[in-house]
Amino acid sequence: TENRSPMPARGHTTALTFNPSQPRTLRRFFQDIETLFERSGVETDPARKSWVVRYLPIDVSDLCESLPEYANEDKTYEDFKKAVIALYPGAGEDRKFAVADVENWVAKRAAVPIANISELSAYYRNFFSMTSYLMKHNRLSESEQSRLFVHGIAPPLCDQVLQCLQLKLPNHYPDDPYKLEKIYNTAKFVLHGTQPTAAEAGRGAPGSEGRKGVIKVEEIAPLLRFLAQSVGEGSANANAGGNTNPFAGNRYNAGVPSVNRYGGGAYFCHYCGGPNCQLRTCPFIEEDMWAGRVFRNQEGRVVLPNGNFVPHHLPGYEGVTMRDRVYEWHRRNPGALPAQLFFTVATDPAAVSAFQLSTDECIDQLERELFNLRQGRTRFDGVEVPRRRPNPSQSRGTSQERRDAPPHLPASSSNNPFRAQPRAAAQAPPASREHVDEPSRIAPVGG
After folding, report:
1. 383 has which bridge partners?
2. Helices and strands in the chain, H and E counts
3. Nearest CA among 146, 149, 155, 150 for reference residue 177
4. Are residues 308 and 275 in contact, defined by beta-carbon separation less than 8 angstroms?
5. How confident is the model at residue 120 (pLDDT cuts 50, 70, 90)?
6. Distance CA 162, CA 149 (A)
7. Which of 172, 191, 210, 427 is deepest in the core (most CB within 10 A)?
8. Which residues contact 274 (CB under 8 A, 6 or more apart)?
9. φ, ψ of residue 337 in degrees (nearest 5)
């Protein structure tokens, strides 16, 4: 007797498998297991049926065991094989492809333009395999095959291919479709020199689906830096807030030393990015607060003029520090700066003159002063100042107010109507220097 190898056990590396999600592989499964039957000497129908059920998945195995062709001993292995294949449409030899399969493949390829010759070849291989099977079984004609292939080529490649065919075959009748081989060769001629790059070939290579979830280090490094910065800013703002009681007064302590939570010696400020600086006592925060760019809320946290926190990310801008994002936010919102509450010293004389009174305002002010004098009252800032009472021990006429003559009139002129005439006898000066006569009251005009 010949030494024959035994059938591999279920789960062994050489054991056969079947994937129910791919019905077309069922025929290959039966071809491979029949080869093992010949090598191992399995010749009886019941033994062959049991080995088929053993290699199938458990759900498919239970389904096949319930078939009448499996339990009935009068049914052969071929009857059982046909019954199993009938459970999966598309697994049979006579219904391997349908016209709908070709139409779906053409529509899928037409949704994305063909960019290189590799994509064109992949489209042609699948299309030719399905259409050749349908043409062999008289389900598709040659003209329909050509028209369907052209429909799967999206512009601008389709227009270029048809234009090139018109130049090569000027006598071709427009209603007659071109041969599939000529269309494919012309498309390859148009796409000459468009071989895919190494990255594109890796994405399109078989088995590349398993590498879709791999993330490169250079792609995730910026995300990690942004996440670390966001967490650092949040913890720094939380520590700057200090006490959680909203009625506890000041929320940040300037005397608390800076601590680097991420290890290392130097501590970098989250606002300005400077080494050995902290968010509580950053001088740039005070500078921007004076300029009105930022404020500290009741919890001591740095906020924008509208009361919102500084955004961690601005669309289209990658700022490293909080101050960079504050300046970028103000650049995008130019009207967000509040009105300044302090004055600026003007160095331009023209600007200073704008605060002086005009001629009409000076005249109006003088008229008010004259009116107050005529009423016998003196007012300073709206407060009336009482007059000083004269000393009753002195006579009203004991002194005479001496007035100097105006500069345009001589002092000895006797024709001056505004100067009182001197009395006949000069009066002696008062004995006490502490006494000062009350100036004569100016009579009101027309009084």
Report:
1. 380
2. 16, 4
3. 146
4. no
5. very high
6. 12
7. 191
8. 268, 282
9. -70, 130
